[in-house]
Design goal:
Structural class: alpha/beta
Number of helices: 11
Distance between the termini: 59 Å
Low-confidence stretches: none
Strand order of the largest sheet: 3-2-1-4-5
Oligomer: single chain
Helix content: 40-55%
Number of strands: 5
Shape: elongated
């Protein structure tokens, strides 16, 4: 009514909306309370954070962003504002496994034993392979993750799921981190990890191999958790026309967003690079 008061008589608009004129004039004199004003301010900031992170953040991570920016508000208030404005983080979808464990290669013992909390960098790396759908066909992705900071320290993408994929990811990780001896590399029992070529590469880098128990997905839960996050926040919301397009988007997600920006609940809602910096590893960050 206020916006159109110059075009239509207040009396006619009040009758149309079944509203008394006295109530309308009383509303004009009222000032919004401080809480409503604050909600409007927070709504703008929350929408901006949600948009910048491409809808990947739910209320816990947005609350941490606001808190770090010096904004005083509660987590419940952030959740309420998000619900009211239809801001909801992207959901999970199931995806099939890519492990080919039916082979005659030797199998390494499980040295990790689900001990995912690691106090030092470059002591335990975990690795896994997943697939990305494009209009040109499948694109396969192999990642290497340091359990200390949950940082993706190496990755490789290719049109075929072969040992070259795992070797490429490992080479990148070694080049970026230059790990000391006694590093343990953990993966599933897939043929790409059990192959002679990959084992020889591990030996060349003085890395000890570890493999999950047969049919036990929990043994490599951290790597699978990363893929679940990647699929939920990036892949399932895109249609990649070409493999090159998918490569570029996955690179941006890992190198720019996940390692440097995304808040990880395990790290106290710090991103992997920030966590390593705070733990005194600034010289080691690539």
């Amino acid at each position: 009514m206020k916006d159109h008061s110059g075009e239509f008589p207040v009396k006619k608009m009040a009758e149309y909306f079944n509203l008394s004129r006295s109530r309308y004039y009383k509303w004009l004199k009222e000032k919004p309370c401080d809480r409503k004003i604050r909600d409007i301010e927070l709504t703008t900031m929350i929408q901006e954070i949600f948009t910048v992170n491409k809808g990947r953040y739910g209320s816990p991570r947005i609350f941490k962003d606001l808190k770090e920016a010096g904004e005083k508000c509660g987590h419940n208030r952030v959740s309420r504002i998000m619900r009211r404005n239809g801001l909801k983080a992207r959901h999970k979808r199931k995806f099939k496994a890519t492990t080919d464990s039916k082979h005659d290669y030797p199998v390494s013992p499980n040295l990790l034993k689900t001990q995912f909390e690691v106090k030092e960098p470059d002591k335990f790396w975990v690795s896994d392979i997943t697939y990305i759908c494009t209009l040109e066909g499948w694109l396969y992705l192999c990642v290497v993750i340091d359990l200390f900071s949950r940082k993706v320290v190496g990755w490789s993408m290719g049109n075929r799921i072969t040992a070259e994929l795992t070797k490429g990811a490992l080479s990148m990780a070694v080049m970026q981190r230059n790990p000391a001896e006694k590093l343990i590399f953990h993966s599933d029992r897939g043929s790409q990890y059990a192959s002679k070529e990959f084992r020889n590469q591990l030996i060349r880098f003085n890395i000890v191999q570890s493999m999950s128990r047969k049919g036990n997905c929990w043994d490599n839960a951290c790597a699978e958790s990363f893929f679940s996050t990647l699929k939920r926040e990036e892949v399932f919301h895109q249609t990649y026309r070409t493999r090159d397009e998918a490569r570029n988007r996955i690179f941006e997600y890992i190198a720019v967003f996940y390692n440097r920006q995304r808040r990880h609940s395990f790290l106290g809602y710090m991103c992997p690079d920030e966590y390593e910096f705070k733990m005194g590893l600034s010289q080691k960050i690539a």
